[in-house]
Amino acid sequence: MHVHKRLAFCWLYLQVIFASVLSDVWKAEVVSEIEALVTSCVVIPCKFQYPGTQLPDSRVRGIWHKQKNQREIIYHEDSTNVVENFKGRTKLLGSLGQKNCTLEIDDIRNHDNGPFCFRAEIPTIDKYSFEEKCVSLSMLSNPREPVLEQKKMYFVEGQHALFKCSVRHTCPSHPPKLTWSRSEGEVHYSHNKIHEGTWQVEALLSFTTKEQDHNTEIRCKAVFHGNKETESKFEMFVKEKPNILHFIIPVISVVGAIIFFVVMGFFVIKKYKRQIQELQSRNENGLWSRISRVSRRFRNHRRPETGMDVVNKSNNCMDTMSGMTGFSKPHFPSPKSEQKNYNRSEVTCSANYDDDYTNTADLNVYGNL
Q1: 61 φ, ψ to 5°?
Q2: Which of 36, 133, 167, 265 could connect to 28 by a Cys-Cys bridge, CB 3.0–4.6 Å?
Q3: What is the pTM assigned to this prediction?
Q4: Mean pLDDT for the chain?
């Protein structure tokens, strides 16, 4: 029992010793790369640890320098030690006593690429440069456009509209300013940290839509530190609020269209019916007339000729002989001339006379003159 207690005590003692030893080391936490907008500013987050107990700010000195040359100091509490190119442009934001070594570089220039490293000095104790933990700057010539987020672009008059505009940056000490093109409505701002070295500014715009908002642009402009700006925009559409006319007019239109087509269909059907009846009537009359003519011819063929029929034939024949059908009589005929040839109608007429009168076979036209 006593043996187990001794072993447990030894184990705890060793943990305390190793913990104190491990805590008495120099180390730093910085991002390896961060974006920086030219003419704007950038804030490099930094945390470090030194051996021993925590000291006040006056006991710790912080220095930032270039990785390749520790003499090229970009920040020092004594500005005379800073290289000319960075004088007045760097500032330590963190508290060294709280082990915060965050640095701000203002008025970013194209050649401020880095890498930059932090160095801590504790007088009478030690000093250390964290060259294994340095940061490089990625230069942006132009700012990124703000992001517009909206659930929809089509609204009905009187509906509540909510829009969000956001932009990311790397200078929380001088965040960009967001402004809306619309003066009416309520605007709420927020500033949040996305991840180490990157922040985001948000602006929420809310208002009640009106008919005048139809086909208008909503613009969000971001102005960055250093007077660089950019904007994003979109177009919104607002429909008029429905009323009783919106329901009556379509119903009237549909009913009117139905009545129009019904009336037109009635007249078209009536017209075609009349045409069909006329065609049927013509067909019936034509057939009946043909049947009547055939029947009349059949009756005439079987009916015996009467005295009136003979007289009619005689009159017809006389008309034919008198020149009505093209018969011509020569002047001063010779009695000894040959018998004249008659045309078909004359022959037919003669034949009819032979049938009616047997003594006309020797009819001499010229002898009757």
Answers
A1: -115, 135
A2: 133
A3: 0.58
A4: 76
The arithmetic mean of pLDDT across residues 271-287, rounded, is 71
The residue among 184, 167, 160, 163 whose CA lies nearest residue 235 is 163
pLDDT digits (tens, 9 = 90+) for 234-272: 888 888 766 665 556 777 788 888 888 888 887 788 777
CA dist 61 → 39, 78, 112, 128 (Å) = 29, 10, 23, 11
Which two three-digit tokens encode residue 176? Answer: 């960009």
Helices (H) and strands (E) counted in the chain, each on its own, are 4, 19
Residue 160: both structure tokens together: 């509540």
Q: Phi and psi for 121 in degrees, rounded to 5?
A: -130, 125
Residue 19: CA count within 13 A, CB half-sphere: 6
Measured between alpha carbons, how far is residue 307 from residues 2, 321, 356 in Å? Answer: 175, 21, 10
- pLDDT above 60: residue 119: yes
The number of CA neighbours under 13 Å toward the Cβ of 85 is 12
Read off the tokens for 263. 């009336």
Summarised one tens digit per residue, pLDDT across range 39-75 is 999 999 999 988 877 888 888 899 999 998 899 999 9
Helix 344-356 / helix 307-319 crossing angle, nearest 10 deg: 150
